[in-house]
Write a structure and sequence with these properties.
By secondary structure, this protein is an alpha/beta fold. It has helices at 38-42, 78-93, 152-162, 178-184, 217-222, 238-248, 271-286, and strands at residues 28-32, 47-54, 57-64, 67-73, 94-95, 100-101, 109-118, 128-136, 172-175, 189-196, 225-226, 229-235, 251-261, 266-267. It has a single domain (28-287), classed as Nucleoside phosphorylase domain (Rossmann fold), CATH 3.40.50. Strands 1, 2, 3, 4, 7, 8, 9, 10, 11, 12, 13 and 14 form a twelve-stranded mixed sheet that branches. Strands 5-6 form a two-stranded antiparallel ribbon. It is globular. InterPro entries: Nucleoside_phosphorylase_d, Nucleoside_phosphorylase_sf. Residues 29-264 form the Nucleoside phosphorylase domain.
Length: 289
């Protein structure tokens, strides 16, 4: 039996941080970072059956063209992803009354929709990027046993290419779900590696008043290439989502609307349109339309 201190439940039987019970979520779930983006997606739903929020974790479940879908805000960073993925998995794969793992495990379909800036000149603003791999620079996933789901070849190549300081912990590389990749892919979508940082400033190469360990890291990442896979963008969640999903047996895919191109110095003239197009594209694919 899983002890009370390890799986914490609220008085109403919901999981501690997400404030959800098993009946509140669909098996198809869309992640967003910002709680205010949840309704930017559910505004397209035909109906909403459930809504709740605790801290930065907001969830709405409803129906889009006959498909039951949940939308959830995760907040910022790999540490929040650790909370969200473990509690979501508990909702479907642990009997919350007996506190025992279920014999028949359920696989969720999880798609992250975000915005990002492209690192590559040929990936223009208003395009979509699919993360073929998540490259974690954050070290969170190293708390788990990840050898069976990570890609040593990409990790070692990145360490060598960037002269990575191993005192920061070894980066980890996790592939996306092939199942979701086949459902979502199209000619409009660019594929590549999404790097996941553990912070916004120093970990992403931003300098305010503090010097950083490797001022050249971003430029090294720009020209990293492994078997044709380049680093397309840099954010704070994808690799953690991929890693925990793979370990727990869920399908995960990360998509970004590109609203800026750092290499060319351009910014989308209508970033809201690009995001809405990615949202409706993804919803239609999930609904089989």
């Amino acid at each position: 039996m899983i002890q009370n201190s390890e799986l914490i439940l609220n008085p109403d039987g919901s999981v501690y941080h997400l404030n959800l019970r098993p009946e509140h979520i669909a098996h198809d779930i869309i992640f967003v970072g910002d709680q205010n983006r949840v309704e930017k997606i559910t505004q397209f739903f035909d109906s909403i059956e459930f809504s709740t929020q605790k801290r930065e974790f907001k969830t709405q479940t409803g129906t889009y063209k006959g498909k039951r879908i949940s939308v959830m805000s995760t907040g910022i960073g790999p540490d929040n992803i650790d909370i969200v993925l473990n509690e979501l998995d508990a909702l479907v794969n642990i009997d919350l009354k007996t506190r025992q793992p279920k014999e028949a495990l359920v696989s969720l379909n999880i798609i992250r929709i975000g915005t990002s800036g492209s690192l590559q000149k040929d990936i223009p603003v208003d395009s979509f990027v699919m993360s073929k791999f998540g490259l974690g620079l954050d070290n969170m996933l190293r708390s788990y046993l990840i050898d069976d789901v990570s890609n040593d070849a990409i990790e070692d190549a990145f360490v060598l290419h960037t002269n990575w300081d191993i005192k920061k912990g070894k980066p980890y590389a996790i592939p996306c779900s092939e199942k979701l990749e086949k459902i979502i892919e199209s000619d409009r979508i660019f594929k590549g590696i999404t790097a996941t940082a553990g912070g916004f400033y120093g970990p992403q190469g931003r300098v305010l008043r503090l010097n950083i360990q490797d001022e050249a890291l971003n430029s090294k990442m720009d020209n990293f290439n492994f078997d044709g896979n380049r680093i397309t963008n840099l954010e704070m969640e994808t690799a953690a989502i991929y890693g925990l999903s793979a370990l727990l047996g869920h399908n995960a895919l990360s998509l970004n609307a590109i609203i800026a191109n750092r290499a060319s110095g351009t910014f989308s003239e209508d970033p809201y349109k690009a995001v809405d197009e990615l949202i409706t594209y993804t919803l239609n694919k999930l609904a089989g339309k």
